[in-house]
Design brief:
The complex is a heterodimer of chains A (442) and B (399). With 442 residues, chain A is an alpha/beta fold. Chain A contains 16 helices and 15 strands. Helices cover 34% and strands 19% of the residues of chain A. In chain A, the strands form 4 sheets. A 5-stranded parallel β-sheet of chain A has the order 3-2-1-4-15, covered by helices on one side. In chain A, helix 4 packs across helix 8 and helix 14 packs parallel to helix 15. The longest helix of chain A has 20 residues. Chain A is globular. Chain B is α/β, with parallel strands linked by helices and 399 residues long. In chain B, strand 3, helix 1 and strand 4 form a beta-alpha-beta unit. Chain B starts with 6 loop residues before the first strand and ends with a strand. Classes of the chains: A alpha/beta (442), B alpha/beta (399). Chains A and B meet through helix 2, helix 4 and helix 5 of A and helix 10 of B. Bound molecules: flavin-adenine dinucleotide (FAD), flavin mononucleotide and iron/sulfur cluster. The site of flavin-adenine dinucleotide has 39 residues of chain A, from helix 9, helix 14 and helix 16.
Amino acid sequence: MQEKHPAGGYQAAGTWNVSPRTLSRQERRTSFGEVESTLTLAQAVQEANRCLYCYDAPCIQGCPAQIQIPEFIARIRSHNLTGAAEVIYRDNPLGAICGRVCPVEALCQKACTSCRINTPIAIGSLQRFVCDLAIQEGRIAFQDETNVLGKVAVVGGGPAGLSCAHYLRQRGCEVDLFEKEDLAGGLLRWGIPIYRLPEEVAKREIDLITNRVALHRKYLLGTQAEDFLKQYDAIFLGIGLSSPILLRTPGADLPGVYAAASFLRALREKKGGDFAFYGKEIAVVGGGATALDAARSAIRLGASKVTVLYRRTAEEMPAFSSEVEAAFQEGVDFLWLMSPVEITPVDGRLKLILEGIRLGEPDESGRASVIPTGVRTNFLADAVLVAIASQAEPAGVEGWMDRPKVFRGGDLTGGATVVQAVADGKEAALRIISWLEKGGSQ
Amino acid sequence: MKPDLSINFCGIHFPNPYVLAAAPTTDSADQVARALEAGWAGAVMKTTSVETETVELVYPQMGGIELEGKKLNGLINIDLISERHIDQVEQDIRRLKKEYPGKVILASIMGSRQEHWQELVRRLEAAGVDMIECSFSCPHGMPERGMGAAVGQNPEFTERTARWVKEAAKRVPVAIKLTPNITDILPIAEAVKRSGADAIVAINTVLGLIGVDIDTFSPLPSVDGIGIYGGFSGPAIKPIALHFVSKIAQNIDLPVAATGGICTWRDAVEFLLVGARNLQLCTAPMHYGFRVIEDLLDGLSHYLAEKGFSSVEEIIGLALPKLSSYQHLSRTYKVVSQVNTDICIGCGLCFIACQDGAHQAIVWDAEKRLPRTDEEKCVGCGLCPQVCPVEAIALKRTA
Ligand SMILES: Cc1cc2nc3c(=O)[nH]c(=O)nc-3n(C[C@H](O)[C@H](O)[C@H](O)COP(=O)(O)OP(=O)(O)OC[C@H]3O[C@@H](n4cnc5c(N)ncnc54)[C@H](O)[C@@H]3O)c2cc1C
Ligand SMILES: Cc1cc2nc3c(=O)[nH]c(=O)nc-3n(C[C@H](O)[C@H](O)[C@H](O)COP(=O)(O)O)c2cc1C
Ligand code: SF4
């Protein structure tokens, strides 16, 4: 017997949940092909019909960028796909990217009212559907205002910087975008692997923004910071945390021990061949997005065994639950409550000495504190990928971060998702605009 | 270039074709103000009457028709005209015309005697109304008193009453709102034309009984155990409304405003294509709120742009030349059903529907769970694409 929901009614018959086509476990172990496909029109309309079109919808509160979710879903329902795309792009210029990489289970879909009677509406998949189609059919062309409100330097071409640049241009600001790399995109380009975010998808939405600004590539902001303060009416810093922190245990500098971030970057630069992981056993140290993507990538390179070593338990892992789930499905192993204390070379392989951990009272970060138990075990691997943390590129900008003209956002200010970076960039742009309108430029 | 959504109806400029129909959504100036802010072009204030008319409402008034999980496929109501008499509506109109001079405010009226109809018209004109709509069409309650549909079901009463109103209206156009609860609409529509009225609004609600409570045996909605017939509206009545609107547009030389089942911009386009110059909505904004106007507007706008039209005026009536009679349909045109096995999910619904409800022309591969059309047997009746849940079946032309 189905239980009656307190709000009345039973789970609606004839309204099914749809799911996109997904690569099989075997396909995922042998290729970097995108795991999920875009919904078909029929699927999208079917799913859109399940949306309750809530008043003051909670899903919007779950979205850092505040996309008017029920409005775009209503437009899918009425086959107004251009209107749906406009609703999304109004609040998030990286709609197709976010439709793929957002941890929706912790954001909009977590808040969806339908969770109380059924599964949440597949908001991420619907967003991806709308944006993919709009971009494919060339229906997205941003019209910028032409009045020159001021001149702004945006430093860092990741999602935070791109979003800030976009909203500044929309309101007619001149934008100089400075990026230390050869290409803009930040972790969209060098971090998130292509089986979740194909290069072409990232490029199309990034180009729609960079085409409208003056892009200065291979430009590392450092000591020029003081000049910037004189030259520009305002400055936005979205430089992320692009420098990986390495292990400090003895042996951390041995050949075969890599920063997972560098590994992921090499894959995006199509230099995966530098890592001969085929048939090898790989250890990954860490429990965040980088660790999980490194592990899933190693599987795809044909590693025979991939083990994630994490010092707390699955509960505390900062990685998104959908990622952990996918890694399990693909055959990644996990060893909880373990931390490497030393790495030594043994017969061309690496021996990790792992120390057992016990969880204690929450520390100042709110997570359970880590107490070494003194129990040690050995763990053998052919290579180690380290993904414990990142920090901002040392850039001589520390001293002027808090100046009134200087705005910041994204991972640099504690964000951890693409959509948070987008939201921060947008909010900063709006603050800069109101600052300029109040004559802040003088 | 954004297409021009504005439209001329009876010489009045509407910023777009969407108007709130006379209903609970228009029973106060505050509600209408919110709707106009949201983007509606105008509103017909809920039907009003002279102060001496007694309007006694009963509750509950609403019922819905459920279909496979969606409850409001159609709405029934046993509401009557507004409890608010002309004195209050006059005030609403003064305020709304002052605050929203660019929007269109219509008033809906109902009377039982010539003096009442004419007094209502004079007072509304003085209050600044843009247009008057006469309800000859409320299907429940009012006809028992010789009002509403009792007028609209009789050509003679229709013509006479419309003349009274037209006589009194010195400044503003008069539209007559018709009932669908009649066998042939044309004699009534012709009567409206003869009266000299300026436009027709079609259709008001369809008389119906939404259901019976199978535990208490009370018809629904149940007022302390007793029920009556009510007025049926919303998505379910769209085909009925399209029929009446197109028929009037084809046969009567008067502009038509459509009402009845318009919920999305797609419905709107269809009504424009069969000749409507104005679109009145009631159930959709009652269900989801005034915010539905956003998709109605931008959906219509994108549609026009994608089809290469620069204004909404250009599409009015484009389907009418293609609306014909049975004898003119082609006897040589032939289609057969075709299954796209890449999309097919193997539910077998097309097979069983054709097997039991059509011509046994679908062959079922039980092993692979795949249907295939036997083109010799298929007459192309078009049942199977209707039952396919994933659009895997299309009709292919063969002659
Ligand atoms: C492997 C991995 C997977 C992830 N997966 C997801 C996911 O699935 N979903 C999700 O929402 N989030 C994910 N994240 C997090 C997400 O990528 C970040 O939160 C987001 O990219 C932060 O954006 P940002 O603009 O603040 O920084 P970044 O994306 O890091 O961009 C900063 C940019 O600034 C440039 N820069 C740095 N210093 C300077 C300087 N001094 N001068 C000029 N330019 C400079 C950098 O080159 C870079 O282009 C993942 C992160 C990683 C590492
Ligand atoms: C609750 C309710 C009350 C209504 N009251 C009136 C009214 O007072 N006068 C009138 O002319 N029509 C009235 N109608 C009819 C609507 O104006 C409209 O013509 C009809 O509902 C069909 O449109 P729809 O399918 O968009 O709802 C009412 C409809 C409903 C549902
Ligand atoms: S919370 Fe869920 S059901 Fe409600 S509007 Fe948002 S997506 Fe639709």
